[in-house]
Amino acid sequence: MDSAHTISGSAGVADGKAWFPQDRFGMFIHFGLYALAARHEWVQHREEISPENYRKYFENFDPDLYDPKEWARRAREAGMKYVVLTAKHHEGFCLWDSKFTDYKATNTPYGKDLLTAYVEAFRAEGLKVGFYYSLIDWHHPQFPIDGIHPLRNHPDAIEMNKSRDVRHYAEYMRNQVTELLTGFGEISVIWFDFSYPNREYRGMPGKGRNDWESEELIGLVRKLQPNIIVGDRLDLPTDGNFPKDLATPEQYTPRVAPTINGQPVRWEVCHTLSGSWGYHRDEGTWKDEGQLINILVDTVALGGNLLMNVGPTARGTFDARANKALATYGEWMDVNSRSIYGAGPSEFKAPNGTKFTQKGNRLYLHLQNWPFRHVHIEGLGRKVKYAQFLHDASEIHWLDPDAEVDSNIGVAVGDGILTLELPVLKPDVVS
Ligand code: FHN
């Protein structure tokens, strides 16, 4: 049972978000002009690139190899069940033919909308579709310059802000969110990113609910797509009138399940394959096979979802490193997905070096230090006391004659993990 199920929507009433704990595993995709720079999606900020100089990426945006069917196939084969694509990231560039800006893919050499083909391709592969929409916009002329803006150190930044009115930008956001939530069918997730009300810099304030006009924006979202899951980074009043759908820790796996106002909440951790959200040609921190699988297992064992990010190249492709990582997920999920989909925390305590995920009376023991010599299992309401795993799971010697394993449903992946499925007998059954 998704304990956070009742967080948004009336308690106990299916609110159309029940798919979330069933799916458990999604793909994040960061794609925009920054892919041409190939060195991080914040490159415009980090290098304080002027609008004039950043325009060269706009004038050369032409992902000629963009094939969302190929993206969708690789996501499905990796075992991913939903997808969230950056319709607009902080740079302000829009992947669809928005009526409210000229800063969009249809005005580049590529000349086409990317989102229609994206939603069609991923739906055809059976995935639910979401959009990431940046609250931050470094291109919009009414977005006040602040401490994270590429012009933050411009000598005239304060003067330039005098002609900027964030109310016009808040209206622009409502107009664009309306386009996204009415022009592409049912959208399962909208991932607003991010609010920073307490980050003042050189007398320029950060931005939060008042700048976004958040209450109006969230009301619009709820009206247009009643079943949509909204990320928690849109700053909203905490008076209880605006329940959060989703907590979104990122780039670390929480030690305990996140809560909001002390209440359990649906949550999803997002990670990168490489350390960078946007395509980074030279980024050297690609996760190995064991890390990839363990992040997924650790997250589900704690009751969360994993949104794993891919940053496509400027030509619109997943590069070989990304495809290798996705294939690692696919190989493991082909035999272990039933320990992930619809599974969650176990009622039992996992031995050191292992994690439990549980679904009904099926317990999944994930041995995270494979090859694992032995593990002591107790308190499962069953007779298993001690088990010795030899070179591979076909040689399990349960030192308790009554013990049994239903199946060795997984294979160790690289230095990853082995997963076993145990039937869980209720304690009162075991003498
Ligand atoms: O600034 C963004 C970043 O570029 C990326 O989109 C991540 C994804 O969670 N969110 C913000 C940083 O937290």
TrEMBL record:
Gene3D superfamilies: Glycosidases. GO terms for cellular component: lysosome. Its EC number is 3.2.1.51. It is an enzyme of class 3 (hydrolase). The record marks 270 as: May be important for catalysis. Coiled coil: none annotated. One of its GO terms (molecular function) is alpha-L-fucosidase activity. It holds the Pfam family Alpha_L_fucos. Keywords: Glycosidase, Hydrolase, Signal. GO terms for biological process: fucose metabolic process; glycoside catabolic process. Residues 17-337 form the Glycoside hydrolase family 29 N-terminal domain. InterPro entries: FUC_metazoa-typ (IPR016286), GH (IPR017853), Glyco_hydro_29 (IPR000933), Glyco_hydro_29_N (IPR057739). Belongs to the glycosyl hydrolase 29 family. Alpha-L-fucosidase is responsible for hydrolyzing the alpha-1,6-linked fucose joined to the reducing-end N-acetylglucosamine of the carbohydrate moieties of glycoproteins. This is alpha-L-fucosidase.
